[in-house]
Specification:
alpha+beta; YefM-like fold; 3 strands
Length: 76
Amino acid sequence: MTVVTVHQAKTNLSRLIKKASNGEEVIIARGSKPVARLVPFGEVKGKRQPGSLKDQLHVGPEFFEPLPPEELSAWE
């Protein structure tokens, strides 16, 4: 595991991405406090197929109804 500061991460981003893609975890710290972790993205499983959920998801007419005032006030 590699620990670098934000400044070092900006300066050496390409190298750090290469380390992460090789499986090494990179911790980015602000001062001595860790704030982010750079890890490999992982495998993409299968191809996305547009329309693969057609006729499997249904939105009822109540979805388009206005929210009740008490629920609407929670969003404000």
